[in-house]
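It is time I had a proper look at our fold encoding. Can you supply me with one protein entry, sequence and fold together? It will help me judge whether the discrete encoding reads sensibly. Leave the record below and I will have a look:
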Amino acid sequence: MDYDVVVAGAGPVGLLLACELRLGGARVLVVERETEPPRSRFGSMGARAVNAPSVHALHLRGLLPEVERAAAMWLGGGAGLPEFDPADTGERPDIFVGHFAGIGIRIDRLRPPGPGEEFLGAGVIAQGDLEVIFERRAAELGVEVRRGVSLTAFESDADGVTVHIGRPVRTGWLVGADGGRSTVRRLAGIGFPGLDPVFTGRQAIVDLDDPGQLVADGWQAGEHGSYVVGGWDDGSGPPRVHTVEYEVVPDRDAPVTAEEIQASLRRVSGTDVRVTRLHVATRYADTTRQAETYRRGRVLLCGDAAHVHSPAGGQGMNLGLGDAVNLGWKLALVARGVAPAALLDTYTTERHPIGEWVQRWSMAQTALSTPRGPRADALREVLADLLDTQDGATYVVSKIGGGWQHYDLPGDFPLIGHRVPDLPLSDGTTLAPHFRSGRAVLLDTGTGAAEVAAEWESRVELVTATPLAFPDQKLAALIRPDGHMAWAAVGPDPEGLREALTTWLGSPA
């Protein structure tokens, strides 16, 4: 084999997956058909929200401080959230933490985390900045990235995959992280059922001859669509415009021109605004499709190659990052031959339902944003009132933010299947730094679990300090490399631990 894994696509998902694979000891090649990363000097063009599961994963790998520094907007975990008194009718600052179907959600409507509830932070970062962070980490780990290389074909057999990228390359496994129109998915023959789009969105950074004609105060809706001016920048550069129209562009592959942006702006704003220069632009639609399976033999799908939907709510990139963190350690173990290929079946089992949920909430926002009328306007007024309450705002933001996401794993301990918080430990450290190596973590506070796990020593990071949250319990817990608890027991349970270690980490050395 030339490589253990070839990853097609060097976006955030492909690069993060490559990092996870290298941490797991796999030899990785990333191929990308674009010669340069799609980065504009106007970073707000590709702004992406970063939600709770992504923040948790970044924290485990030590990348969170770098992401925070690069973010265009960040609500840090230490700052908490402002209290909201329903009886307070005074003036409050217009600070919004998100939206649902374009209806803004105020930050002062969110319920602050309660005792024991972890909030590491959330924010918005330019996609180009996130790619820089991931690409730099990939280089540090020894990932090979080839740009200007297109995957044109592959042949898969019982022992591996021959990938054609100008010349044949032999690999154990192939992952398509090559976007919604994935070549890998098409060549693998994996079905991609779903719904065709009903709207076209356009984003662009432009120069305007008379920007004062446009209303720069949130989303402006009209008979022919809606638009917004401005974005995640300091206002020093040219404006970012975003339009949504309920018509579908016949040829989405055609380049976006200044004339197209100008015509769309005029239709939705009812002005004769003129675009004098187009710096960068993109076009998208609300196509909603999901792969029937995320794995076929030695070929897997990750990110938009596995699922596409409207970008409303900013969940798409986070969904893909979650795929990468779930798949990376599993595929590395299988590629190295220490775990059976059946471990990869848990990837579809765990990630496909979360993709389905995101698509349903995405479609709900599209339905609520369809061309207006008295009925739709009345429904939006009802929802706006609901989102102006603490319960309504907190529920919607926590759902879109991914705080609910977990995996259905066997066991009675409350945290099994859930992300484990960064628990303070009796030695003055916390749990998260022990995940930097990308290995599973075994917490043993005197139950004998460490002796049981000795045969898996190279795949397990041992922690013997006591979590301050459980000071009086003889606790043992196996936490997967993605930070989800796989097994736990109060007191000795050698057979249960051995079964969990074999299930998630393969046979002993």
Q: What stands out?
A: The longest helix spans residues 345-368. Residues 40-44 have pLDDT under 50 and may be disordered. The CA atoms of residues 63 and 252 lie 35 Å apart.
